[in-house]
Amino acid sequence: MREIEKTFQNLKKRNEGALIAYVTGGDPKPEYTPDIVEALIDGGADIVELGIPFSDPVADGPTIQAATVRALKTGITPKKVLEMIGEIRSKHRAPITILTYYNPIFKMGLDNFFRSANNCGVNGVIVPDLPIEEAHDYKKVADAYEIDTIFLSAPSTSRERLRKIVEYTSGFLYLVSVFGVTGARTKVQDLTVKLIRKTLPFTTGKIPLAVGFGISEPEHVRTVISNGADGAIVGSRFVKIIEKNMENEDIMLGEIKKCARELKKATVRG
To answer: Which positions are catalytic?
Structure first.
């Protein structure tokens, strides 16, 4: 059994959902990333999602796009992000996933990328611009290195296609909760609740369901977990904390840890 699956099973026994926390690798400085991830884990994040900066992040909103620009200006590369994960892995056992667009994987080569990811301790990879129809070779290599291939489902995904995605994905299904790009929002939309309920019949007993895009407050987390999701994915909220405190690492880390703790509390089912 792979580590992400173990994590969800253990959380289910404790009657908790998963807090999956996203940050951009190398933002605001590469040397900060291991400490930022440590603060997330210390605060209660069950799974960490680390973004590999890419010049054309089409699924990301302004907050994460700005983080990507900051990271790229430091000279961050996919190889450096993987090296960071190796450093983090030497201290922490929490599952670590990568979010990347397909171009960096293509440039490295499938086997080279997944071999390096496996050596560094990566547990899963999310590729927003890789459709399942073109993922056969990708998934074959990922499985050979025991790395989960985490696919996304959107509000516009048909039932037939959702069924195929559930068959392909491992680790968890990433449910995009709203139309549009990433970014913090003021409340969980009715669409999101309906979407969770529409998706659960396809995932229950097969794969954990994690909800992302627009999840930023404890009440958001509580809503998606109470409506049946197995996890909540929070990104822009943490990235904003980094953006506001770039000149003071101690305050940044303290705020990240505090935020993660508040969000994690909201994953406990009543």
So the answer is: 49, 60
